[in-house]
């Protein structure tokens, strides 16, 4: 039983693989607890919207606030009926369990996109989700602490996925975001910790690149220049020089860990890391970065990347060189 109303009980059933293709319907009987009078039911076997690996059905036209005992069996197309499962449930809504699989799918310095799935037990018809944001810590401690209004996100009951963008956040800050389902009652929350990255910054160290085939290399202005948000220069952690190919066939050759998908989302995939240094390595920044062994007559482009970090959230600022042909 995953959902209850005053007049219906909703079931999800898992069927063995060998009988799934033959499954036609669910059959059974039910009675009010303490009564010897029972009724039969049949329900078409249909995959659940929320859990495609399960089958969902309901028994309706029940009486309010009663406890019912059910005996349920799976019926196959050859009319064979399997073993019976017994379950009891009441026609009374209760508070929902927490949303499932809550995660952050993307973030900016001032917002995050949150996804979650339907609760394992909603115990009623979900009408909305309550989203509460609590500020935990921020890099600029003098700006602490903002109070966020509780947000009510209207919801269609039994959707496979729910998405919400939480805005108005501050860069380089930590938040605890709770999400709870609301039927007639407020449900148990699922809580996720979120860090926002530093805001866009000026490139603080300029690239010093030497190409064996070119006397000089021109760099373009930043594609995403800094905004009016504060710049947190002390959070700059490292610099990278990336080699991009016009055919996009460069293969990433560095173990960048969680930084890799952030770089790919900003710059694109299929780059080669030529140089990667932490900001504290002063000797490395004094030496020119030599780029050689390029394929002749092939067009390339370089990306100079500045990486800032607040906890597990990365900020990426970069400039691109002009395209050039290797000689």
TrEMBL record:
Pfam families per the UniProt record, alphabetical: fn3
Q: What residues form the membrane-spanning segments?
A: none
The protein's matches in SMART domains, at most eight in alphabetical order, are given as: FN3 (SM00060)
Domain Fibronectin type-III, first and last residues per copy = 98-199
Query: SUPFAM superfamilies per the record?
Result: Fibronectin type III
Protein name, entry field: Fibronectin type-III domain-containing protein
């Amino acid at each position: 039983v995953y959902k209850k109303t005053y007049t219906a009980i909703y079931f999800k059933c898992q069927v063995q693989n060998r009988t799934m293709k033959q499954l036609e319907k669910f059959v059974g009987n039910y009675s009010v607890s303490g009564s010897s009078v029972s009724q039969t039911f049949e329900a078409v076997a249909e995959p659940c919207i929320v859990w495609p690996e399960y089958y969902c059905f309901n028994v309706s036209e029940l009486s309010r606030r009663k406890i019912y005992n059910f005996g349920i069996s799976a019926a196959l197309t050859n009319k064979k009926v399997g073993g019976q499962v017994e379950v009891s449930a009441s026609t009374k809504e209760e508070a929902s369990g927490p949303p499932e699989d809550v995660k952050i799918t993307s973030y900016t310095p001032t917002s995050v996109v949150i996804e979650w799935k339907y609760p394992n037990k909603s115990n009623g018809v979900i009408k909305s989700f309550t989203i509460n944001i609590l500020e935990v810590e921020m890099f600029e401690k003098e700006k602490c602490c903002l109070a966020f209004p509780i947000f009510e996100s209207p919801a269609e009951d039994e959707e496979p996925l729910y998405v919400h963008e939480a805005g108005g956040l501050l860069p380089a800050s930590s938040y605890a975001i709770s999400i709870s389902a609301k039927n007639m009652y407020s449900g148990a929350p699922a809580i996720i910790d979120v860090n926002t990255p530093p805001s866009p910054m000026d490139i603080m160290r300029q690239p010093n690149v030497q190409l064996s085939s070119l006397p000089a290399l021109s760099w373009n202005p930043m594609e995403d220049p800094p905004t009016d948000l504060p710049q947190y220069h002390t959070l700059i952690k490292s610099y990278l020089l990336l080699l991009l190919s016009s055919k996009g066939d460069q293969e990433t050759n560095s173990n960048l860990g969680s930084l890799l998908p952030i770089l790919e989302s900003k710059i694109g995939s299929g780059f080669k890391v030529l140089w990667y240094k932490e900001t504290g390595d002063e000797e490395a920044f004094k030496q020119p970065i030599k780029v050689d062994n390029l394929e002749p007559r092939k067009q390339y482009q370089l990306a100079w990347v500045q990486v800032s970090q607040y906890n597990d959230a990365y900020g990426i600022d970069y400039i691109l060189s002009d395209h050039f042909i290797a000689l």
